[in-house]
Amino acid sequence: MRRILAVLLSFTAFGLRAAIAQAQGPAEREIDVLDDNVQPQPQGRLQHFLPGALSVEMDASTAAVGTGWAGYNSASSMPVFNATAEAWIVPRVSVVAGFGSTAQAATGSARAQGGARVLVLDQGRHGVNAGLAFVYRQDRFTNEGGMLEWSAMLSRRWGADMAIANLAYAQDGEGDDHEAEIRLVGVRDLGGGLHVALDNRVRTLLSSSDPHRAQHSNPTLEFNAGPLLAYTVGRFALATEAGVSGQKVDRLRAGVLVLGGMGASF
Fold this sequence. Notes:
10% helix, Porin, mainly beta
């Protein structure tokens, strides 16, 4: 497991060094995107406001983004909420901070999270957007020092429509629980500021040597899938999502996830 951790850390560090070196080049190379990769009103881009999906796309007019979501998951019988702020410190590197509700019923309160994201490839030159992210989260494994999560992010735009894929590996602070997550999102622009999306997420336990895992009520499987409807105007967005959800702790429970959110970019 230490080898996997070392490889992930090295990969993240390499991406950060490459992005910073690129940002220090000529100004015209800092942001190089095709017209097909930019919406007429980039300030209202829906991909910045999706609940949990990490956007890897960037634009010259956006320096910071703030989002907030709240709702209820009947599969876990718990309210869910999160709020995050992201700021680009250089054109290809951003820092993220916020808080979110816990996944453990016994610790249902807001917990902090923070990290960084780096754009490695952009669609203008490479045909696809790709990036890396590292986040420290206290909303999961709250009894075990929180969680370290590494993500690979991909996205591709076709005019105003786009597809997003996030692949994540995570482990708890003690290093004896390991998880993986995949998230797939398709976004369609209907015009007039109206957007629809299909949001799908599966998170599963890869391995665990923690003898107390069951006592901590850590889920071994989580999923949700459903449509999202959003309206963007200028730099602001309002959105709602509803769909099926599931969570397994001692047994699998299925239910409905309902969310509402808002965001702004600056």
